[in-house]
Structure formats: structure tokens, C-alpha cells
Design a protein that fits this description.
The protein is mainly β. It has one domain. The protein is built from two helices and seven strands, in the order ββαβββββα. The strands form two sheets. A five-stranded mixed β-sheet has the order 2-3-4-5-6. Strands 1-7 form a two-stranded antiparallel sheet.
Length: 177
């Protein structure tokens, strides 16, 4: 087991701890490591900058990450590498959640000594950032609805018959103004 990806909250120095690492894609795709579903199909390692600090009896984790995944554009269906960035923000507390605590608590309770799997935290954040529909670029023109050509790479080859259009008769109106 790769202990470097675990942190023990009880052992956290008073100054906290910071990470600026590239998490290997192989580790994020390893189904034997961690409890959160693996993130398959990564193009490269995931860069993660993170800070873990103790604030009274809470442990606050903040940071940001960058990943790249192969996707298909929702407009033109072309394959591209999706650049995604996300934020990490978690609060942990040692101990067990008591029955009288409200269920909308913003912190995760971790049994002492407070072992946290950092890979699972990152996997969760990547899954939460997942979008069902992504586009290859803001200027993507999509597919022609008539012939299906990718309008980013070629012109439309449709021969449009505008005479059968429901509003075609409006062209014959003479408006004097």
C-alpha cells in the first residue's frame, strides 16, 4: 500500500502541511487502492496543490487540481482532450458523529487517529467536476442538422429547398412602409 497518499490528522504539525504534487494517473486508475471509484481515461498525471491546516478541532483542506481527459464534443462529436480544473475544499473532524448533530454538517467525521486517503479525496473532486456535456471550444459550430457535416472542418453540402418551408409564403408579401 502506498502510505505517502495517506495523512494522519492527529500527527499534523501546528503549521499544517502543503502539497504541490503530480498524482500518477496509474494510481487514480488503480481499483485496488482506495474506496472511491477509479477515474479511468486520464490523459496524464493530475496536478494537485493543497493545504491542510488545523483550526481548533477542525482540519481544513483547500487546494486546486488540473486534469486532462479524452472526451467527445457535445456539438460536433469530435474527440478532444478536455482540460478540467477544480477546487478541493473539505473539513474533517476527529471522532464519530453524535446522534444529536445535525445531518447537514459541513465536516466529515474521521475516527481517531484520523487517517485520510488523499487519493480518494482527489477522485471525489474529479467525479464532482464531471460534466455530461462538454464542447471542444467556445467557437465550435457543431454539426449541420441536414447533412451531418462537422461545420468546424467542412462546409455544409445540403441543398435546401426553401419553397417547402412553412413560412416560405411570407417572402411573397409586399410590405410598403
Amino acid at each position: 500500500m502506498q502510505r505517502q497518499w495517506f495523512v494522519i490528522l492527529q500527527n499534523l504539525p501546528a503549521a499544517g502541511r502543503a502539497w504541490d504534487v503530480d498524482v500518477p494517473k496509474k494510481l487514480l486508475q488503480d481499483s485496488e487502492f482506495g474506496e472511491v471509484d477509479v477515474v479511468s481515461g486520464l490523459c496524464a498525471d493530475v496536478h494537485w496543490s493543497m493545504l491542510l491546516e488545523r483550526q481548533a478541532n477542525l482540519f481544513h483542506m483547500t487546494g486546486q487540481w488540473q486534469a486532462e481527459m479524452p472526451r467527445h464534443c457535445s456539438r460536433c462529436n469530435a474527440a478532444f482532450n478536455w482540460q478540467v480544473t477544480g477546487q478541493t475544499e473539505r473539513q474533517f473532524q476527529l471522532g464519530l458523529e453524535s446522534a444529536d448533530d445535525e445531518s447537514d454538517s459541513l465536516c466529515e467525521f474521521v475516527a481517531a487517529p484520523g487517517e485520510v486517503n488523499l487519493v480518494d479525496v482527489l477522485r471525489e473532486d474529479i467525479w464532482l467536476a464531471w460534466k455530461a456535456d462538454v464542447i471542444c471550444s467556445e467557437t465550435c459550430r457543431g454539426l449541420c442538422q441536414g447533412c451531418g457535416n462537422n461545420l468546424n472542418t467542412s462546409a455544409c453540402k445540403c441543398e435546401r429547398d426553401e419553397s417547402d418551408h412553412p413560412f416560405a409564403a411570407l417572402r411573397n408579401l409586399k410590405l410598403d412602409g
